[in-house]
Amino acid sequence: MRILLPFLALYRRHWFLISLGMVLAIVTLLASIGLLTLSGWFLAGTALAGFAGLYTFNYMLPAAGVRGAAIFRTAGRYGERLVSHDATFRVLAHLRVFAFQKILPLSPGGIARFRQGELLNRIVADVETLDHLYLRVISPVLSALVVIVVLTFGLGFLDVTLAYTLGGIMLGLLMILPFVFYHAGKPYGRDITLLRGQYRTLLTSALQGQAELTVFGALGRFRQSMTDVESDWLKCQQQQANLTGLSQAVMIFATGMTVTLLLWLAAAGVGEHSQPGALIALFAFCALAAFEALGSVTVAFQHMGQVISSATRVSQLMHQEPEVTFPAHGPQTTDSLNLEIKNIDFTYPEQPLPVLKNISLSLTSGEHIALLGKTGCGKSTLLQLLSRAWDVDHGEIRLNQQPISQYDEATLRSMMSIVPQRIHVFSHTLRENLLLAKPDASDDELEIVLKQVGLGNLLDNNEKLNCWMGEGGRQLSGGEQRRLGIARALLHNAPLMLLDEPTEGLDADTEQQILSLLRHSCQHKTLIVVTHRLTGLQHMDRICVMDEGRIIEQGKHDVLLAQQGRYYQFYQRQSYLEQE
């Protein structure tokens, strides 16, 4: 239960709405109980007066009380639902935003351990499950407790024995039944939370990889895995439904036994100053109505296992420490940029072998270098370290003679334009996908940069910059997505350009066009290009050849060819393949 304390603290922000909703819930319960109690007493009193032959019976006052209780119940129920749900939605909105803010610093290291569907499930479904905490647990329990006290005190003026009997039974059930049904429903609630996450993860994977599953004939097997998880999920839900039915049966049985006990105790008479028959009916109908206050409590606590499991999963996400932290303030950005890498080593978390070993590299402002090597040699990892997606294990990276760790995040991001291997295209318009890099860019600027990277064809429609990109840029080819990423980098206009395979997936003519554009646009910028192709490398100020996490050769194109080392081998191999 302690895991719920941080989430309970969030309700302090909306204490007025929560308190008002609880007061309205209590008023609604009392009005509902009063309606049935007063109606039963009124009908019993009228019948007894008729049997006794009395011709003077004040029916106007109780009739007005019945109408008043009905109005209060209806208005109170509406007001309680409106206020309580409003407060709950405000808390959940704050919690969801707060959780997302906690997740952002985890990228990419902390997020990499979560699958996409699992992360989404924690942010959306698990947070949504926490609405049970107030609506179905806190409010019903406190309301039921207040109602029991009020009923016991009020009925005590009529008959202390019957009042204490009814109040004692209800208080005992309020303490025992939630405890029993919480432990009975806890394992099913936990399993429902886990299976729901598994199912959504599988569903997300199936939708994203539908083409691959179809091509390799694995769609049936994958669908069977989803069916098995769904079957287990439904079984747990069925077990919870059975517990719900059992709790309702227990409440019906308890209500019947309580009414029977009250009738038996009242058989000898319940008072000296009122008609015994009418008061017997009053206590009986009051007991029938009062158990409404307990009806939702048992059902709520059997779902507490699910609430606690969701709270645990959300809490794990929110309390996870980021791999990289930034200071609040740091050195200011400048137009020129010098970069120095000193003896850095890096190993990915939970991986046994290092990716980078004793890497040292210096770049002066405006210098262009290429990192060349086969896949897995550490080229992309080095770019990630420069952007502080990760921190080095040993060594140091300096920008303008300042350790990179001393820069605040906003300043560091403003100094770098990055084109990663995988370009993410948001499900939004073409304009919004470009404004990520420069929010104040005009439409003319956006159109110019699109034409520069060879995406002018995207403007050949009536919607132009308002054309919809679709989820993940499904309307764009791989090469078009990469050129969109280059357009973003050019718009960002930072002094350091980090490009990871910028021409991958492009034809030869488009590749030459992009390389020429980059040379022209980055004349006064520091440029680092990761590649495994040799096209355009003769224009680089320096080429660094990497292998197994080390820089084994570096120099200009002609110098490296003259050495006839690893770069020479790459060049000979590519020349041979081009001739073929």
- CATH homology group of the largest domain: ABC transporter type 1, transmembrane domain
Uncertain spans, ≥5 residues at pLDDT below 50?
270-275
Counting DSSP H or I runs of 4 or more residues, the number of helices is: 19
- The overall pLDDT, averaged over residues, is 82
CATH architecture of the largest domain: Up-down Bundle
Tally of discrete structural domains: 2
> How far from one another are the termini?
69 Å
Record field, number of beta strands: 10
Q: How are the strands of the biggest sheet laid out side by side?
A: 6-7-8-3-9-10
What share of residues are in beta strands? 5-15%
Coarse structural class: alpha/beta
Alpha carbon gyration radius: 36 Å
What top-tier CATH class of the largest domain fits best? Answer: Mainly Alpha
Family: Belongs to the ABC transporter superfamily. Cysteine exporter (TC 3.A.1.129.1) family.
Catalytic activity: L-cysteine(in) + ATP + H2O = L-cysteine(out) + ADP + phosphate + H(+); glutathione(in) + ATP + H2O = glutathione(out) + ADP + phosphate + H(+)
InterPro entries: AAA+_ATPase, ABC1_TM_dom, ABC1_TM_sf, ABC_CydC/D, ABC_transporter-like_ATP-bd, ABC_transporter-like_CS, P-loop_NTPase, Type_1_exporter
Transmembrane segments: 15-35, 41-61, 133-156, 162-182, 249-267, 279-301
Give a description of the structure.
With 580 residues, the chain is of the alpha/beta class. It folds into two domains: 2-318, ABC transporter type 1, transmembrane domain (ABC transporter transmembrane region fold), CATH 1.20.1560; 339-579, P-loop containing nucleotide triphosphate hydrolases (Rossmann fold, 3-Layer(aba) Sandwich). It contains 19 helices and ten strands. It has helices at residues 5-9, 15-51, 60-103, 116-129, 132-155, 160-208, 210-215, 219-265, 276-290, 292-302, 304-318, 379-386, 409-414, 430-435, 443-452, 478-492, 508-521, 557-563, 566-579; strands spanning 339-346, 356-363, 368-372, 394-399, 402-403, 416-419, 496-500, 526-531, 542-547, 550-555. The longest helix is centred in the N-terminal third of the chain and has 49 residues, at 160-208.
